[in-house]
Structures are given as structure tokens and as C-alpha cells.
């Protein structure tokens, strides 16, 4: 186990360890006491025991793709899992185990050899740890379900440094929390036990419109009737200095010829006026990952926000401002439909907010001098959106910018209880403002005056047409 201390003479080594694999170049002024480069579960246990001895918190880094940079917390022991790699595939059972630092691209390259696929994150370098703990908005999740729904069990290390296994039968409260609690999970995952899918052929259609046709194109996208293997997204972004609004359809073909039939039918209904278009183009996961990497370039500064929007909301009107006023040529705004998942009864898990529409802004720039302008634009652009949202997705949230609701009220209370039971001292640092969310565990009825709003139960949209399982 390699440990790099903050007070070592070679500060360059400490700085390299502090920021190793961190995706967002807009980095917080926070300083762990030490960084532990773990290579196995025993290293994780030893790091937690060290934190207990020093009476400091523990933070963890899986893939380093958090926009909030949750892993870097003041006066903590940062456990970097980047060197802890391990995947075991069981083709006959259709299952696998994987360590948290395994990335989306890595897991699917290994599975492809066995004719298998996992609905991981869209970005190739996202680690499974953060992705799955916060729910896992992966490939075609509106139809297949979120990544957390494919988690069958977990190996974890508790806040007391104890290794254990949890699933629906053993330590089921931790299993419940691990599927959607995100940085509120009161333990450290060392291995996921997952269910996979058979590999699929992939096809896409794309329609890039000038921004002037935003309403026409978005209204068309909302009207499309899709099958259970097709994902729809819409994006606003700059292409060769021109602001565009694009609609993309990605089909993971479940039946031979099904993709061509569906995408050809939808193509016939498209509005005229596209700048670029294609229909039923063969794709690979590699080509999709490459496209996503171009949209989320390395070495840039990011500020993000998002919302799950109520089912009866006029999304075309409400999203017009953020879609059509991006502050930087590399920024983008994104929408996807969450139906039919949004109308389905969920498994018993922490992930519990459902809505028909998901919207996110990825403000992307390079120059630190642009920080204030881009962040101010983000807050302004989200103001008309906030009132239409029932909550937000943890994966694209920055708590320092804006707090939202991440679980339904019943799940919020239960999560607080699970945290109190398994981490009463608040040992696990979850990336909350001021480096602590310890107070949320003190009083499940909300009587404690310092509770952070992240874990305070709030009502959700009364018009939602969902049946919560909790």
C-alpha cells in the first residue's frame, strides 16, 4: 500500500496523487491529509483503519470523473482505487464481478469477447464505482433500467474497516442504499457483482438542425414512438461555430431487421431543413464511446446542473433558453426521454425519483478566467428549469452550485437511518459542502438545526404518475 502524505518534502508527488485521474480541471481548494493508492481490498481496510486511528474522514476515488470532484476532501484519507483492477466473467451464468475503478469501455471490451454487454456509462472513462452508486444512467436506461438495477451484490468495507458482502438477503439495507445513494453510501465498495446482457448490433440515426428549427425539431422528437431497444437524445451544441439542435436515435437491435424497419419509419417523418442527417448507420460501442469523448473532452473545466422534469411539463418552451444560449463553443445541453422507465414500478432501492424527462447542462471551457462567467450563466440558465423539476440526478450534480432533491421522501428517511446504523460517526466523506454531512444522521425527524438539505425529505410533484416501491 503506497501512502503519499501532504506534509512530505516532495509536494509535487502529493499534488500528482491529489489530482490523479481527476477529470474536471476546475479543481476545488481541498487538501486530503494523505492519498492511499490501493491495489486490493486489504489496502482499503488498512486505509480505513488508518483514518480511524488519525480520527479523520475517508474519501474514495474510483474513476475520477465526478464533476464535483467528490474524492478530494479536506483532512481526509483519500483512497485511490485506480490501481485496484479486477474483472471476473462467468459467461454461462451471464454474470460478472468488477472492481469500482473499472471503466465503461474496459468492462465492455472484456465482455465483448464472450458475446456479453453491460449497460455502463456513456462516457468511456467513467468508473463503475461512482456510476453505479449514484444510480447509473447508462445505455438505453429508459427501457432496460438503470445500471443499479443490474447490481446483484457487493463486496464492501464498512466505516469501521470490516469487510462484508451484501445483497438482497445479507445486509439488505446496505444493498438497498448502494443502488442510488451515491456519495451518501456509508461504506466503500471493493467489488460489484453484476448481471450482464447479450451483445447487440447497434444502429443510429442522426438529425442536425440549425438552432432556428429548435421548436420544430424538438416537437418532432417528443412525438416519436420508439421500441424497447431504442434510445433518443437531443443536444444543443456548436458545430463549426454554428449553434445546432440535434436529435439522435440509437438502436441496440433485439431482432434481425428490427432496427432498419423502425429507423426507416421514423426517418420518413423527420422535419425538413437538416444541416446533416443519416439513417440506420451501423455503429459499434467504440464509435459511440469516441463520439461521447469528443462531447466531453479531457483537459477542460466543467460546471454542470440537471433536472428530472415533471411529466406534464412543456419542455420545449422551458428548455429554450438553456438550449439556445450556450456560453462557450464547447458547452452542450442535453435531453433524453425516460419513458417507459419513468412509469414503471421500481425495485426496492435508494434510487427512487422518476420523471418522463431528463435534462442536463455541461458547461465546458478551458480558460480559468472564464470561470465566473460560465458558472453565472449556468445558474441563470437553470432558473426557469428548476421550477419544472421534481429533483435531480446525483451524477451530474454539483452541490456547491445548487442543492436539489435526489430521492423521494420515504427513501430519504430510510437512507438517513441506514447511514446512522452503519456510519454513526460520519467517517465516510461524501463530497458535501464544507466536507461533511455528519449532521444529517443525527435526527431522522428533521429536528436537528444543521441538517443538510441533501437528506431532508421533501414532497415531490403531485402530478407524477408513478408507483413507488418503497
What would the keywords be for this entry?
13 helices; alpha+beta; Uridine Diphospho-n-acetylenolpyruvylglucosamine Reductase, domain 3; disordered C terminus; globular; five-stranded antiparallel sheet; eight-stranded antiparallel sheet; 19 strands; Uridine Diphospho-n-acetylenolpyruvylglucosamine Reductase, domain 2; 470 residues
Structure annotation, total helices: 13
* Strand percentage: 25-35%
Give the overall pLDDT as a whole number: 91
Q: What's the CATH class label of the domain at 87-198?
A: Alpha Beta
- Low-pLDDT residue spans: 434-470
Shape, per Cα inertia axes = globular
User: From the coordinates shown, what is the CATH architecture of the domain at 87-198?
Assistant: 2-Layer Sandwich
Summarize the amount of helix as a percent range. 25-40%
Overall SS class? alpha+beta
Strands, count: 19
Task: Give the strand line-up of the largest sheet.
Answer: 15-12-14-13-17-18-16-19
> CATH topology of the domain at 87-198, what is it called?
Uridine Diphospho-n-acetylenolpyruvylglucosamine Reductase, domain 3
Radius of gyration: 22 Å
Largest pleated sheet: 8 strands, antiparallel
Distance between the termini: 41 Å
Amino acid at each position: 500500500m503506497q501512502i503519499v502524505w501532504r506534509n512530505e518534502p516532495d509536494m509535487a508527488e502529493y499534488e500528482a496523487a491529489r489530482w490523479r485521474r481527476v477529470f474536471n480541471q476546475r479543481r476545488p481548494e481541498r487538501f486530503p491529509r494523505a492519498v492511499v493508492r490501493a491495489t486490493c481490498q486489504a489496502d482499503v481496510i488498512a486505509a480505513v483503519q488508518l483514518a480511524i486511528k488519525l480520527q479523520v474522514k475517508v474519501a474514495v476515488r474510483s474513476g475520477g470523473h465526478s464533476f464535483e470532484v467528490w474524492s478530494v476532501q479536506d483532512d481526509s484519507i483519500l483512497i485511490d482505487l485506480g490501481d485496484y483492477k479486477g474483472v471476473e466473467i462467468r459467461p454461462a451464468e451471464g454474470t460478472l464481478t468488477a472492481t469500482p475503478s473499472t471503466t465503461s469501455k474496459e468492462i465492455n471490451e472484456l465482455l465483448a469477447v464472450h458475446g456479453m454487454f453491460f449497460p455502463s456509462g456513456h462516457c468511456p472513462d467513467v468508473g463503475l464505482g461512482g456510476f453505479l452508486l449514484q444510480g447509473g444512467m447508462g445505455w438505453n436506461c429508459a427501457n432496460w433500467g438503470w445500471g443499479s438495477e443490474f447490481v446483484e451484490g457487493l463486496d464492501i468495507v464498512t466505516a469501521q474497516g470490516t469487510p462484508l458482502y451484501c445483497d438482497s438477503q445479507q445486509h439488505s439495507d446496505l444493498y438497498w442504499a448502494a443502488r442510488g445513494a451515491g456519495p451518501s453510501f456509508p461504506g466503500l465498495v471493493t467489488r460489484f457483482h453484476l448481471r450482464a446482457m447479450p451483445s447487440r448490433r447497434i444502429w443510429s440515426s442522426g438529425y442536425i438542425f440549425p438552432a432556428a428549427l429548435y421548436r420544430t425539431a424538438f416537437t418532432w422528437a417528443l412525438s416519436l414512438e420508439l421500441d424497447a431497444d431504442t434510445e433518443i437524445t437531443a443536444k444543443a451544441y456548436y458545430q463549426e461555430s454554428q449553434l445546432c439542435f440535434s436529435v439522435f436515435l440509437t438502436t441496440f437491435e433485439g431482432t434481425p431487421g428490427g432496427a432498419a424497419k423502425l429507423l426507416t419509419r421514423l426517418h420518413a417523418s423527420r422535419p425538413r431543413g437538416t444541416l446533416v442527417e443519416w439513417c440506420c448507420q451501423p455503429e459499434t460501442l467504440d464509435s459511440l464511446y469516441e463520439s461521447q469523448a469528443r462531447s466531453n473532452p479531457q483537459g477542460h473545466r466543467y460546471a454542470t446542473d440537471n433536472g428530472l422534469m415533471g411529466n406534464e411539463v412543456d419542455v420545449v418552451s422551458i428548455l429554450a433558453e438553456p438550449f439556445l444560449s450556450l456560453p462557450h463553443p464547447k458547452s452542450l445541453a442535453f435531453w433524453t426521454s425516460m419513458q417507459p422507465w419513468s412509469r414503471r414500478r421500481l425495485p426496492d432501492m435508494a434510487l427512487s425519483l422518476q420523471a418522463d424527462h431528463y435534462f442536463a447542462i455541461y458547461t465546458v471551457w478551458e480558460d480559468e478566467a472564464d470561470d465566473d462567467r460560465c458558472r453565472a450563466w449556468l445558474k441563470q440558465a437553470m432558473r426557469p428549469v428548476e421550477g419544472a423539476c421534481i429533483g435531480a440526478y446525483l451524477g451530474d450534480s454539483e452541490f456547491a452550485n445548487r442543492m436539489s432533491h435526489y430521492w423521494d421522501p420515504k427513501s430519504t428517511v430510510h437512507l438517513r437511518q441506514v447511514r446512522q446504523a452503519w456510519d454513526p460517526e460520519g467517517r465516510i466523506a461524501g463530497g458535501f459542502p464544507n466536507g461533511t454531512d455528519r449532521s444529517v444522521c443525527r435526527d431522522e425527524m428533521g429536528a436537528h438545526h444543521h441538517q443538510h438539505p441533501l437528506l431532508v425529505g421533501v414532497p415531490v410533484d403531485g402530478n407524477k404518475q408513478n408507483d413507488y416501491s418503497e
